[in-house]
Amino acid sequence: MTSIFIEPAPAKLNLFLHVTGKRDDGYHLLDSLVCFAEYGDVVSATRRDDTAITLAISGPMAGNLSDGNPDDNLVMRAAKLLQTEGKVSQGADLTLEKKLPVASGIGGGSADAAATLRVLCKLWQLDIPADRLAALALSLGADVPVCLGAKTVLMQGIGDELIDLPELPNLSLVLVNPGCAVATADVFHARVHDDDDNGNGRDFTDSDLWDRTVHFNSGASLAAALQDCRNDLTLPASGILPEICDVLQALAREEGCLLARMSGSGATCFAIYDTDDQATNAANMIATEQPDWWVQPTRIQSHDNRALSQIGASFPA
Ligand SMILES: C[C@](O)(CO)[C@H](O)COP(=O)(O)OP(=O)(O)OC[C@H]1O[C@@H](n2ccc(N)nc2=O)[C@H](O)[C@@H]1O
Ligand SMILES: Nc1ncnc2c1ncn2[C@@H]1O[C@H](COP(=O)(O)OP(=O)(O)OP(=O)(O)O)[C@@H](O)[C@H]1O
């Protein structure tokens, strides 16, 4: 019997993203409310007797990763890092079902790397201290630590400081990407004044604007509070890719839209709708009008289904 271990790699959403400073090494300090969608990629792993690590990629977005060197894939990089760190003498056959658009602000690669770390800790029965695992995650990318826990948090620092928050209400969401990749580094670099700021400069937002104690009981009350926040990367990202403005307008004009905003460094935008039906209708309308866009209705990941997903699964193959 071969055991297969399976881990979801859910889409990350920045419900707001404030840039609060810049470090000497060029990385930006953030204050961001991060949650995870039910929709995402899937990583699975089976054991090998030798030390080789293989990766097979399938799924609707697999083609967008086929050009690069497979060893550059964040799944492979995470696996090799963990194998070295854990002094593991086994290998693994990994699969990645790629459903999220690549380089699109919803952390697809980061979610895949984090899911790989989780799945291989189970497969290889590693007991790595949480702070060591978080440091490994950060070495793979600023978004990987938040994707490791895959729960609602306030994210600060460069993505390495994670503060637990009360669970958010169930949200009816639509994610839309105009079909163009945007590089995160280009968006940060395109910020006005970015080059002459020292970390306390005039174009940075104050941090700690979010009340960490409030428990929202509806999507409407959360969306109302989010109106006072922004994504500070929307302007630079839409300067690079003006279609982002079209996506935001398309989401906002559908019935029941409570909030439409870009996630991360874009170009994917999300909208919160009042009901699941309104989200489904909005997704259908936008997909019909814009057949080249990626349009995905989903919900926020709740504690219940997250608990299930974190256990993973082991069954005969
Ligand atoms: C914008 C966010 O998506 C918000 O969640 C993340 O901060 C991005 O995280 P990520 O894609 O994992 O980013 P990385 O791969 O670590 O960094 C890519 C590039 O983005 C810029 N970068 C990234 C994160 C950060 N806090 N400040 C930055 O300035 C840097 O130029 C860096 O070279
Ligand atoms: N498994 C993977 N999935 C997606 N991208 C990957 C993967 N492995 C490597 N990459 C590379 O990583 C880069 C960032 O991709 P990713 O999809 O994580 O961006 P993103 O959604 O903008 O992330 P973030 O929101 O964390 O900034 C791309 O240039 C892509 O080629």
UniProtKB/TrEMBL annotation:
Active site positions: 12, 143
Occurrences of domain GHMP kinase C-terminal (ranges): 227-287
GO molecular function: 4-(cytidine 5'-diphospho)-2-C-methyl-D-erythritol kinase activity; ATP binding
EC number, as in UniProt: 2.7.1.148
InterPro entries per UniProt: GHMP_kinase_C_dom, GHMP_kinase_C_sf, GHMP_kinase_N_dom, IspE, Ribosomal_Su5_D2-typ_SF, Ribsml_uS5_D2-typ_fold_subgr
Record's keyword terms, sorted: ATP-binding, Isoprene biosynthesis, Kinase, Nucleotide-binding, Transferase
Domain of life the protein comes from: Bacteria
Uppermost EC category: transferase
Statement: the UniProt record of this protein carries the keyword Kinase: yes
Family from the record: Belongs to the GHMP kinase family. IspE subfamily.
Name of this chain's protein: 4-diphosphocytidyl-2-C-methyl-D-erythritol kinase
Taxonomy of the source species: Bacteria, Pseudomonadati, Pseudomonadota, Alphaproteobacteria, Rhodospirillales
Gene field: ispE
